[in-house]
From TrEMBL:
A GO-annotated cellular component: plasma membrane
Protein name from the UniProt record: YiaAB two helix domain-containing protein
Single GO BP term: DNA damage response
Origin superkingdom: Bacteria
Keywords tagged on the record: Membrane, Transmembrane, Transmembrane helix
Domain (YiaAB two helix) ranges: 12-64, 75-127
Length: 147
């Protein structure tokens, strides 16, 4: 018997959004309360925004390739470089920061939680669009609306 796919469950959608909210909020609160200079706070906040964008963009590009939606090699490469750069810049910043080990761990873990959750949220958004009734009724495989 063939299993019927109905998209992501409400629990997974909620958990993904909650993880994204918790990760970004705790990272931001940590920066707000930190005793570092304002330019350092700006550096770490910019890394969060850059990392979130890079993770979402990479997830979308990988998914597009799996679904035979054209993705240029240049853009795909830039996505990988961007996520690697965001992680390396965070690691270098934390390595050289005058923070305690527990603070460094806090920033690293809340950052990684945020990136993972952003990928899960993006996946859910895309899956929900695919499983809407108006898409299920059509027999076309035109996915140009998802580009």
């Amino acid at each position: 018997m063939k299993a019927k796919h109905s998209g992501p469950s409400g629990a997974f959608i909620g958990a993904s959004w909650l993880a994204l909210f918790i990760g970004t909020l705790t990272y931001s609160i940590g920066l707000w309360n930190a005793t570092m200079a304002l330019n350092e706070k700006g550096y770490y906040f910019t890394l969060l925004l850059y990392g979130l964008f890079a993770a979402i963009s990479l997830q979308k590009s990988v998914r597009d390739k799996l679904e035979d939606i054209p993705v240029t090699g240049l853009y795909f490469g830039i996505c990988w470089i961007s996520i690697a750069a965001a992680l390396l810049l965070l690691a270098a910043g934390l390595w050289n920061a005058t923070l305690t080990s527990s603070e460094k761990g806090f920033y690293a873990m809340s950052y990684l939680l945020s990136l993972f959750a952003s990928v899960a949220v993006q996946k859910n958004v895309r899956d929900l669009a695919l499983f809407k009734p108006e898409f299920a009724e059509t027999e076309t495989t035109d996915l140009s609306a998802f580009k």
